[in-house]
Amino acid sequence: MTHIPPAEPQEESLGALVAAASDHISTLVRAEIELAKAEFRFDAKRVGMAAGLFGAAAFMAHLCLILASFTIAHALVAAGLWTWAAFLIVTVLYLLVAGLLVFIGIRRLKGLTGMKRTLRSLKTIKSGEHDPALDVAPITPAQAGGHRDPVRPGQ
Fold first, then answer.
1. Which of 34, 60, 73, 110, by CA, is between 20 and 30 Å from 6?
2. Does the global pTM surpass 0.85?
């Protein structure tokens, strides 16, 4: 990146001013893109984890319904329940387990913040105002989301 040293206002040519403005704009655009990438990477990991939980819930529900439903239902029939009542009890039980897994997956997704800093920065640029909160160094991917509480199982 070339940096043109500032000169006295009356000595700067129009070309030098345009070059400096172009340099500042390209630096700003690069910084905004890096910020958006860092925030997106962090949120994408959480979305991936939540999607994995939903997939695990569906897989477990499928296996349980196929493999264990008949065993439990027939055990209930052997204990003296009517066949239809035994199968109904097993179905309700597995629906409750699947609902619990979906609830856990939804809780994982609630922690996503979107790209708040990027959106705030773009709104500030659009309005032409100066936001002192944006005068910090751009965040790195390792720093993205570091201010958030870690997600623990069961949250």
1. 34
2. no
Among the listed residues 130, 119, 112, the one whose alpha carbon sits nearest the alpha carbon of residue 36: 119
Q: How many domains does the chain have?
A: 1
Q: Is the dihedral of CA 7, 9, 13, 18 positive or negative?
A: positive
Domain containing residue 123: 14-134
CA–CA gap between residue 11 and residue 85 (Å, rounded)? 92
Has residue 154 been placed in a domain?
Answer: no
Which residue carries 């239902």 as its tokens? 73
Residue 111 and residue 125 in contact, taking contact as beta carbons nearer than 8 Å: no
Could you tell me if residue 5 is inside a domain?
no
From first to last of its 155 residues, what are the pLDDT tens digits of the chain?
A: 556 665 555 667 888 888 888 889 999 989 888 888 888 888 888 888 999 999 999 998 888 778 878 899 999 999 999 999 999 998 898 899 899 999 999 988 887 777 778 778 888 887 877 666 656 555 555 555 555 555 555 55
Q: Flag whether 139 is in a domain.
A: no
